[in-house]
């Protein structure tokens, strides 16, 4: 039976989220394949690993835990940025970590799956690309943040940026083109100005060797509240290179039948209330058998939020920010 490899990168704070992600992915994945899962980490205990492994017991899947602490030295001294954890860096070293695979899927764990991922793994056969994912929906608002930190040529490349929440990595091509070292060096050298760190790094070092997958494979929650009639759709994303009405219909189909729902931003369905599409995550969480774990985790998340917002209020009060 054909094997589809998938890897995840997260720390101890995302164990509950990871269990929901993995379980929801396997619930909807085609049973024609075996799924070989890998968790890249630096801080998970044996107990944590057993806890995560429990959600795959009824599926045709195996899971491996890879401690990547030796690679952590490469990013020593790089401070955290916004709500991004240091684990995002490990997406860039997949070619080194998985010599047995020619391609692999990578997904974030602030997501829930409601459809089958297997189709993506077999896309673009025999093509020389570095990675593939969902392209931009619009550029008008998003590109403003890059103007102060990137030159015109870089901005033109960033316009094509692919969301890093769900990726197909062509490891064979990464090795052939020596892209891993290039990505790592660029990430470290330019970290201070990278806004979406691994995502910006990947497009700036790999363009134009990228491919776009259908939007339904990673639907950001912002699309469910966006005013599509007023959205200036990005023509570089193949599905949106059409009339405004056709592009709008394409987005509507994607959000009605997503393969993955991505909870973009600092507020997540497990640590906040009134989050867009939270009900879908809660249903998947209960189906994964994580209800009590979710309930027990709430005081911890609440305390963390109080601390974060108290610090934010302190800074605003004393520094007029």
How does this model look, in words?
This protein has helices at residues 15-28, 46-53, 69-72, 94-97, 118-121, 152-158, 171-176, 179-190, 197-206, 244-256, 278-287, 291-319; strands at residues 3-9, 34-41, 61-67, 104-107, 111-113, 131-133, 166-169, 210-212, 219-220, 260-262. Helix 1 (15-28) runs parallel beside helix 2 (46-53), helix 1 (15-28) packs across helix 11 (278-287) and helix 8 crosses helix 9. Strands 3-2-1-4-7-6-8 form a 7-stranded mixed sheet. A 3-stranded mixed sheet has the order 5-10-9. With 321 residues, the protein is α/β, with parallel strands linked by helices. The protein is built from 12 helices and 10 strands. It has one domain (3-289): Alpha-Beta Complex (Spore Coat Polysaccharide Biosynthesis Protein SpsA, Chain A), CATH 3.90.550. Residues 313-321 have low confidence and may be disordered. Strand 9, helix 10 (244-256) and strand 10 (260-262) form a beta-alpha-beta unit.
């Amino acid at each position: 039976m054909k094997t589809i490899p998938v890897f995840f990168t997260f720390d101890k704070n995302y164990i509950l989220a990871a269990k929901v992600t993995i379980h929801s992915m396997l619930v909807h994945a085609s049973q024609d394949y075996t799924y070989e899962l890998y968790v890249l980490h630096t801080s998970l205990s044996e107990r944590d690993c057993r806890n995560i492994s429990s959600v795959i017991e009824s599926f045709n899947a195996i899971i491996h835990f890879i401690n990547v602490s030796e690679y952590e030295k490469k990013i020593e001294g790089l401070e955290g940025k916004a709500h991004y954890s240091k684990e995002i860096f490990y997406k860039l070293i997949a070619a080194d970590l998985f010599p047995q695979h020619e391609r692999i899927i990578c997904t974030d764990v602030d997501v829930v799956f409601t459809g089958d991922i297997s189709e993506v793994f077999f896309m673009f056969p025999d093509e020389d690309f570095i990675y593939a994912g969902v392209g931009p929906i619009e550029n008008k608002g998003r590109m403003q943040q890059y103007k102060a930190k990137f030159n015109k040529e870089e901005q033109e490349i960033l316009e094509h940026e692919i969301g890093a929440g769900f990726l197909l990595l062509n490891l064979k091509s990464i090795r052939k083109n020596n892209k891993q070292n290039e990505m790592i060096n660029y990430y470290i050298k330019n970290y201070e100005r990278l806004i979406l760190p691994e995502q910006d790094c990947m497009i700036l070092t790999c363009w134009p060797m990228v491919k776009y997958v259908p939007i339904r494979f990673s639907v950001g929650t912002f699309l469910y509240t966006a005013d599509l009639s007023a959205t200036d759709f990005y023509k570089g994303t193949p599905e949106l290179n059409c009339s405004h009405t056709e592009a709008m219909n394409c987005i509507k189909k994607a959000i009605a039948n997503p393969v993955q729902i991505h909870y973009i931003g600092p507020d997540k369905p497990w640590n906040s209330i009134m989050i867009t599409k939270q009900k879908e995550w809660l249903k998947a969480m209960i189906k994964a058998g994580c209800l009590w774990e979710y309930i027990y985790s709430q005081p911890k998340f609440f305390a963390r939020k109080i601390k974060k917002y108290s610090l934010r209020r302190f800074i605003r009060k004393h520094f007029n920010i």
